[in-house]
């Protein structure tokens, strides 16, 4: 998080924003916002076909039983373009969400470190990671929720019953607010999915990077090439993605189910009772692990590639 030296330990005016190799000024935070938007918007767009399949496996597990078979069914019944349904709200939702998630994570880490002081920031570093991730994702979800509701509705509706283009779908959602609960009817289940997901992703990423630089790549981080550092980023990101896919899957299932007519207006407790807790935790999980593992690894890689290109260095270390 910061350079550890005798000056920092003894300096009462220590500041997390200026104690790093690259000062964390407002320009630095602005670049982090841009990097986060690029990382999340591009990766979620890339895996739209997986997302369409996963959502349908969650809401209709009897029809959509496995990844390959479900993809074939969707293409056979709706055409090859159907697996890209919802790509517009995906980009418009996850780009600002990613900007806030990654950018504010850096802001909150520094703010919390300054709040508790140097010694406590080192002693409770992992708690700062967790708190910063939770706070940044809380904000990110506010930017994501309207577009996520449109995306899920587009991807899971029976063909011909709901518009698939962005503008008509948005108008339809807005005109039927009493039914769709647009734009923030899914904010609580979205928080229940995204906050555990992001906390897990950021914590296990930071921890994995720390372990790799401590036990495997034991030379100073700056002695390794950017290619090696970004390889470490990708490896740590994929490991973190697998864990957070499992943690966040029940919340993701609930968000998908809320778009179905037979669950409309029901509480989270009622949906859990009707669909079954085991189904919430397992239906579509294999696909989600592949999807989220790939997303997490690519997001961290794109984010750190952007940071490295901007002269900001890669994330994490000993």
From TrEMBL:
GO cellular component annotations, sorted alphabetically?
mitochondrial inner membrane
* SUPFAM superfamilies from the UniProt entry: Mitochondrial carrier (SSF103506)
Which InterPro entries is this protein grouped with?
MCP_dom_sf (IPR023395), MCP_transmembrane (IPR018108), SLC25A3/Pic2/Mir1-like (IPR044677)
The UniProt keyword set, sorted, is: Membrane, Mitochondrion, Mitochondrion inner membrane, Repeat, Transmembrane, Transmembrane helix, Transport
Q: Where are the Solcar repeats?
A: 27-111, 228-309
Q: How does it sit in the membrane?
A: Multi-pass membrane protein
Molecular function (GO) terms for this protein are: phosphate transmembrane transporter activity
Pfam families named among the record's database cross-references: Mito_carr
Keyword Lyase assigned: no
Gene Ontology BP annotations: mitochondrial phosphate ion transmembrane transport
- According to the lineage, what is the superkingdom? Eukaryota
Q: Where does the UniProt annotation locate this protein?
A: Mitochondrion inner membrane
Is Transport tagged as a keyword?
A: yes
What's the chief localization of this chain?
mitochondrion
Similarity comment: family membership: Belongs to the mitochondrial carrier (TC 2.A.29) family.
**Protein name (database record):** Mitochondrial carrier protein
Species whose genome carries this gene: Rotaria socialis
């Amino acid at each position: 998080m910061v350079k550890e030296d005798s000056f920092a330990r003894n300096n009462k005016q220590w500041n997390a924003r200026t104690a790093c190799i690259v000062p964390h000024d407002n320009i630095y935070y602005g670049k982090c916002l841009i990097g986060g938007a690029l990382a999340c918007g591009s990766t979620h767009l890339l895996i739209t076909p997986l997302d369409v399949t996963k959502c349908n496996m969650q809401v209709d597990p009897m029809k959509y039983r496995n990844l390959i078979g479900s993809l074939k069914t969707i293409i056979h019944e709706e055409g090859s373009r159907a697996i890209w349904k919802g790509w517009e709200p995906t980009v418009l939702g996850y780009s600002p969400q990613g900007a806030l998630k990654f950018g504010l994570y850096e802001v909150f880490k520094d703010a919390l470190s300054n709040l508790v002081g140097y010694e406590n920031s080192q002693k409770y570093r992992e708690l700062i990671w967790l708190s910063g991730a939770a706070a940044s994702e809380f904000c990110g979800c506010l930017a994501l929720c309207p577009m996520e509701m449109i995306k899920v509705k587009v991807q899971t509706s029976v063909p011909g019953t709901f518009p698939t283009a962005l503008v008509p779908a948005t108008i339809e959602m807005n005109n039927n607010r009493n039914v769709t609960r647009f734009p923030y009817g899914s904010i609580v289940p979205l928080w229940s999915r995204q906050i555990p997901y992001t906390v897990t992703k950021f914590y296990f990423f930071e921890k994995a990077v720390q372990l790799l630089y401590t036990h495997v790549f034991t030379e100073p981080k700056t002695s390794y090439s950017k290619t090696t550092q970004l390889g470490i980023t990708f490896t740590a990101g994929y490991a973190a993605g697998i864990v957070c896919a499992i943690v966040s899957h029940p919340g993701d299932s609930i968000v998908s189910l809320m778009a179905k007519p037979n669950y409309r207006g029901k509480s989270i407790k009622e949906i859990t009772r009707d669909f079954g807790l085991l189904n919430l935790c397992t239906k579509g999980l294999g696909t989600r692990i592949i999807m989220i593992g790939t997303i997490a690894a690519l997001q961290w890689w794109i984010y750190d590639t952007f940071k490295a290109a901007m002269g900001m260095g890669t994330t994490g270390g000993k």
